[in-house]
Write a structure and sequence with these properties.
56% helix; 6-stranded mixed β-barrel; 416 residues; alpha+beta; single chain
Amino acid sequence: MILSAHERMIARRYLLPHKGEGFIFLVAGFSVVAVALGVFALISVMSVMNGFRADLFDRIVGLNGHAIVQGYDGRLDDWEAIAEEATSLPGVVEATPLIEQPLMASSNGRVEGILLRGVRVEDIRSNKLITENVTAGSIADLRPGTNNVAIGGRLANALGAYPGAEISLISPEGRSTPVGTVPRIVTYRVAAIFEVGVYDYDKAFVVMPIEDAQTMLMLGDAVAMVEIEVDEPDKVNDIVAPLQQTIAGKGVMVDWRQMNSALFEALEVERVVMFVVLCIIILVAAFNIASSLIMLVRAKRRDIAILRTMGASRAGMTRIFMSVGLIIGAVGIILGAILAAIFLFFRQSVVNFIQLVSGAELWDPSVRFLSELPSKTDPFEVAAIILVTILLVFLATLFPARKAAATDPVEVLRYE
């Protein structure tokens, strides 16, 4: 929308309060604040939800891969052939053997349910999610035959374990005796404690070399599953589809969506609902802009009539009042974006401060799944939020601007 020099001058004058117009200016100020709060809320909430999904995805997939081939009865005897064929598929980055088994762990008279995870030593050391989050001990001490394990930080707290302490793993599948099956109990030394930031994993994981896990569970050379990593997670089904014939009758394939379908679907639905709900704030702000412009038009009827008699066109008056409304909206958008950037930068400090003042734990990791408030701002999403706001503000200015353009100078000057 291009304004002439005198139209820009008039629009600029109408943006500033004059005698008797303080209330109109106050309403316009409320409109700016409302737009700013709407944009701030939308950008902040969507960024946090994007960060939550991305962080959750990275941590879950970092430990479980994009797809797994799980053997029937928890055994894959010819896993080497499956892993070899998987790595030969286009798009597959890596296929690694894995053992996972829920067991019980005991230490210092305490018992906790755990998830035993047997991984090749080289895979443990190349997994940055574990190696970069070691809080005590050393991952380098995990070697086959040493009976050393790494455990999650919250499990360590629950068991009262620390590097160098001993924990006993209890498997219900032990040796058979005349009086029944005796549970298998093996003692291990805690070599390292890690905290990946996913509560359920930090509370349950016990990681050991795959050879020790095979011995513990009496699997021989078999494994429980093959973990597959691909270069395009969203296309994992198409990438691993050719592997279905090979594993027929041996096991079942599950991708990351199926493993966490309820969680990610809930996040997606929540994102859409939050976007729609928060857009209502901006819609209310747009109505405020419309209200302030209507009052401004009423207050400037005489000025509009004089301008019309001096040659101002209806289109020119429409542009002037639309520009006033759009400038109010633009100021609100800029303020909202700045507030969102500040909040997202200091988000964890804000959460900690509110917790300190209120005495309530707002980000309980046992409920929220992650241990910190994440954030990931999508530039395209921010652009969409700004465009939606501009569109709503633009629509809100149409009626007042057309009302101003429709002012009859003869009628106004006759009675005023």
